[in-house]
Design a protein that fits this description.
Chain A: Belongs to the acyl-CoA dehydrogenase family. The complex is a heterodimer of chains A (373) and B (393). Chain A has 373 residues and is an alpha+beta fold. Chain A has 3 domains: 8-124, Orthogonal Bundle (Butyryl-Coa Dehydrogenase, subunit A, domain 1); 130-220, Butyryl-CoA Dehydrogenase, subunit A, domain 2 (Beta Barrel), CATH 2.40.110; 222-367, Butyryl-CoA Dehydrogenase, subunit A, domain 3 (Up-down Bundle). Chain A is built from 11 helices and 10 strands. In chain A, the strands form 3 sheets. In chain A, strands 1-4-5-8 form a 4-stranded mixed β-sheet, covered by helices on one side. A 4-stranded antiparallel β-sheet of chain A has the order 2-3-7-6, with no helix packed on it. Chain A has a two-stranded antiparallel sheet with strand order 9-10. In chain A, helix 5 (89-101) packs antiparallel against helix 6. In chain B, strands 1-4-5-8 form a 4-stranded mixed β-sheet. In chain B, strands 2-3-7-6 form a 4-stranded antiparallel β-sheet, with no helix packed on it. The longest helix of chain B is centred in the last third of the chain and has 29 residues, at 262-290. With 393 residues, chain B is of the alpha+beta class. Chain B is built from 11 helices and 8 strands. Chain B is globular. Chain B folds into 3 domains: 1-70; 110-226, Butyryl-CoA Dehydrogenase, subunit A, domain 2; 234-359, Butyryl-CoA Dehydrogenase, subunit A, domain 3 (Up-down Bundle). Classes of the chains: A alpha+beta (373), B alpha+beta (393). Chain A binds chain B through residues 1, 3-5, 251, 254-255, 262-263, 265-268, 271-272, 274-276, 278-279, 282-287, 289-290, 308, 311-312, 360-361, 363-364, 367-373, and chain B through 238, 250, 253-254, 257, 260-262, 265-266, 268-270, 272-274, 276-278, 280-281, 283-284, 287-288, 291, 293, 297, 300, 303-304, 363, 365-367, 369-371, 373-380.
Chain lengths: 373, 393
């Protein structure tokens, strides 16, 4: 059975990340940043990724990382979710790192293996942001998207809705004949920013027109599946943190806010909704920890644990954010109040790495509950 | 300090002195109680060793491996889970000495005389009267939803001893002998057709003052111990995947492809995921308890299981189509044990309706979570400071 609790070291890690985010990433700062031309705060990223060493949590020590597991990365993501922090952590330190770790070269002395090791080292020290060039909506079990053609190491094609591409220095590009590393800012690479629903996770269209790439693996399938599985599984922890903030903030507000000569939080009609949400958050925690632990131990149950966590936590995060807006009343509908940042992140997260319906389909296959003929 | 090795040694001594294969079941259980291996966290002399509760698992594993009989805890759940902790905390030495051993061994079954027709969610409004008469109390009133009353020797009873005080203050807690004259037990037939529960009519029942538990007027406080232990005893064990109500419907789905529709498929998968998450949440709670970090999460588990049991069994009746129009048996029966997942889908559907009522309605539990876990303010109350006799009824 999986370990569903938090260790003392994980609690300490949480405290450190929370205190950094409290100082550097409050709601007002996130909103200001989201409206600026540079949605990421490079200083915050340097503190998290390099100073605290969090970019390399999943990278083995011999490759320059921390050699930690998905359990610790999940705790970081809970905290990032709580503050809707605009950082390329999930996309870079989880999805890109796992994709690279999934590039098993048959010959460790090959140029591919050297390129992978070099990239993992650069990713782990936090100075090079790496992103996987697939749409944010791509699900782990589905067909790996291939919108890019390769001819003699020259790549052409168009990939839409790539998360954090604008912040990335290196893009991991799946093509028909393998996985390639492409540096942004080189000839033939264009990153066109899109207007995202979630202001805290920038999206872009990546256009490659004869771009040069370094081949990392002969087939993109296994590495990309591994990256997306880890991304989907740990997104559940981000969703948990997000839902937890929405509940806590709603409880705080409704205890304080008075109408009809009493706190609105004393009305059963509101209390029952918040109690129900608490139950969902408690359950989401169990599902998210189960997924993180299954990924950390390499359990054969990991795909099921991830599908269950994604189905459940996506819905809980959206429900929590929607209740947060509604139970705040008018103030929850304003641009000034941060509730909308959480609603937009939650709704967008529900689609990220496959909408809940995709994951219930995966559950159906994994546990043998087939659809009607 | 008692440790695992010591407990294991004591268990082996018990097994050597009373080999299960050749020892009468009751004799073995009595010997186990006297050896302090009944509930190791209880004090010495009362079936325990004053040891950490976690060591009980060591005893249970040793005894199970040796094929020793157990005390059939499901049959005596109210005694073990509710009466015993209350007697231990509030009972006199004489009460503890005389009551706990036959309770644990299972020679004497216990029931709980708390709920009344006029006092369900608002239990503190109960109206069964106990009037002092010399060394006795004379009890008159009606209790309801009493499981095991028809087989019980003893009951834990709360009754009103001072109607002039506000409702929480005028209650006293007693141990009632169910074989006394004036105790009448009638089956209470429920929507499933059977009668798991009883109504208990108390008419001029004389209870000696020596069977009072705790001080006069402190019965509500004593009852909190009983009810707290009821909640602790729920959700303590590990459940396998598809272990609950989802199991039968998943099996039906796999075995009967002709019943499948797209609408039912989506709903089944959503419920499967929710059941799996509820199972994981229960497992997480169990791990917290084992690690000695109990959290407030337990208050929510019953809410989750009640709703899931109802939705899953409702789906199963629908899935069965024409068979869902039928019911296995409406005969009035008195089952000794209740199995929520037993019998057919129609029974499960009807029985699970009780899951959101028994042991605290879901609405009351949501209030408890909101107020005690989330710290939300209570509704303004008009019943706290007026005498019980002046309450609206």
């Amino acid at each position: 059975m999986t370990d569903l609790l938090y260790s003392e070291a994980e609690d300490d890690l949480r405290a450190a990340v929370r205190s950094l985010l409290a100082a550097r990433c409050d709601a007002a700062a996130v909103l200001t940043r989201a409206e600026s031309d540079t949605p990421y705060d490079p200083g915050l990223w340097a503190s998290l990724a390099t100073d605290m060493g969090l970019a390399g949590l999943l990278v083995p020590e011999k490759l320059g990382g921390q050699g930690a597991t998905h359990r610790e990365a999940a705790v970081v993501l809970e905290e990032l979710g709580r503050s809707v922090a605009p950082t390329p952590y999930l996309t870079g330190a989880v999805v890109a790192a796992e994709t690279l770790l999934g590039c098993h070269a048959e010959n460790p002395a090959s140029p591919e293996a050297a390129a992978v090791a070099e990239l993992l080292g650069a990713l782990a020290d936090g100075r090079t942001v790496v992103a996987l060039a697939v749409p944010l909506s791509a699900a782990p079990g589905a067909h790996v998207p291939r919108a890019v053609r390769a001819a003699d190491g020259s790549l052409s094609g168009r990939v839409t809705a790539v998360a954090d591409a604008a912040a990335a220095k290196v893009l991991l590009v799946p093509a028909e004949d393998g996985l390639y590393a492409v540096e942004t800012g080189t000839p033939g690479v264009t990153v066109e920013s899109l207007t995202p629903l979630d202001l805290t996770r920038p999206l872009a269209t990546v256009v490659l027109d004869g771009a040069r790439g370094r081949r990392l693996a002969g087939s993109a399938d296994a590495p990309v599946r591994r990256g997306l599985l880890a991304g989907a599984g740990l997104l559940a922890s981000e969703q948990l943190g997000l839902a937890e903030w929405c509940l806590e903030e709603t409880v705080r507000y409704t205890r304080d806010r008075k109408q009809f000569n009493r706190p609105v939080g004393s009305f059963q009609a509101l209390k029952h909704r918040m109690a129900q949400l608490w139950l969902e958050v408690v359950s989401a925690r169990a599902a998210a920890r189960n997924a993180a632990d299954a990924l950390a131990t390499g359990s054969p149950d990991a795909p099921l644990a991830v599908a269950v966590a994604q189905t459940y936590c996506s819905r809980v995060a959206v429900h929590a954010a929607e209740e947060c807006v509604q139970l705040h009343g008018g103030i929850g509908m304003t641009w000034e109040h941060p509730a909308h940042l959480y609603l937009k992140r939650a709704k967008s997260d529900a689609i990220a790495f496959g909408a809940p319906g995709r994951h219930t389909q995966a559950v159906a296959e994994l546990v043998g509950l087939p659809a009607p003929q | 300090m008692t440790d695992a090795a010591e407990v294991r040694a004591l268990t082996q001594e018990l097994l050597a002195a009373h080999p299960p294969a050749t020892t009468d079941r009751t004799d073995f259980l009595r010997a186990r109680f006297d050896a302090g291996l009944a509930w190791v966290h209880y004090p010495a002399g009362l079936g325990g060793l004053g040891a950490p509760r976690s060591l009980q698992a060591v005893v249970d594993a040793e005894l199970a491996a040796a094929g020793a009989p157990d005390n059939d805890p499901r049959r005596i759940g109210i005694g073990l889970g509710m009466a015993a902790p209350t007697i231990l905390r509030f009972g006199t030495d004489e009460q503890k000495q005389s009551l706990l051993r036959p309770l644990w061994v299972g020679e004497e079954v216990w029931c709980q005389l708390f709920s009344e027709p006029g006092a369900g969610s608002d239990l503190a409004a109960l109206g069964t009267r106990a009037v002092r008469d010399g060394d006795d109390w004379v009890v008159d009133g009606q209790k309801v939803w009493t499981s095991s009353a028809h087989v019980a020797r003893w009951a834990i009873l709360i009754a009103r001893t001072d109607p002039g005080l506000p409702k929480h203050q005028g209650i006293t807690y007693f141990v009632c002998d169910m074989t006394d004259p004036g105790v009448e037990v009638r089956p209470l037939r429920q929507i499933t057709g059977e009668a798991e529960f009883n109504e208990v009519f108390l008419t001029g029942v004389r209870i000696p003052d020596s069977r009072r538990l705790g001080p006069v007027g402190e019965g509500w406080k004593v009852a909190q111990t009983t009810l707290m232990n009821e909640r602790v005893s729920i959700g303590g064990s590990r459940i396998p995947r598809e272990g609950g109500m989802i199991g039968p419907v998943a099996r039906t789905w796999r075995e009967r492809p002709e019943l499948r529709t797209h609408d039912l498929h989506q709903r089944l998968l959503d419920l499967w995921v929710e059941a799996e998450v509820a199972r994981l949440a229960g497992e997480r709670l169990r791990q917290q308890l084992v690690a000695g970090q109990p959290g407030p999460e337990g208050s929510g588990m019953k809410l989750a299981f009640a709703r899931l049991n109802q939705e899953i069994s409702g789906l199963e009746v629908e899935l069965r189509g024409e068979e869902g129009l039928l019911y296995d048996d409406w005969t009035m029966r008195r089952p000794e044990l209740v199995d929520f997942t037993g019998r057919d889908a129609g029974y499960r559907y009807l029985r699970s309706k009780g899951n959101s009522i028994e042991g605290g309605t879901s609405e009351v539990l949501l209030n408890i979570v909101a107020e005690r876990v989330l710290g939300l303010p209570s509704e303004p109350r008009s019943d706290k400071d007026i005498a019980w006799k002046d309450l609206a009824r």
